Amino acid sequence: MASAPTLAPSNKETTNYARLCRLLVDGGTKALRYTFDKFHSPANLFNVLKAGSAEHSTLQSIRKRKIINATQWGKLYPSPPSSVTSKDFDITLLLVLLRNICCLAAPTTG
Fold this sequence. Notes:
By secondary structure, the chain is mainly alpha-helical.
């Protein structure tokens, strides 16, 4: 009978690493959301994303290239559509939106 894999005991280094990762994701998401909301105010986000807009066409193109997944698409176009909010966007989606519909350039060094 096979035994369950033994987990490495947590030590101060791994705990600090986990805290740093969490800080980067949480803090990074907050910073990206703040920046995104400066480009597209939460009150106007529904109008920016509505069908027929240039942003909608761009997002459809990105979706076809599978850069945006179905879950993220559902966050952009919830039911009812007027309930869209950047508070529901994850860090990856925020970065894609900033680069593609906010004209935020990618870093020159990669």
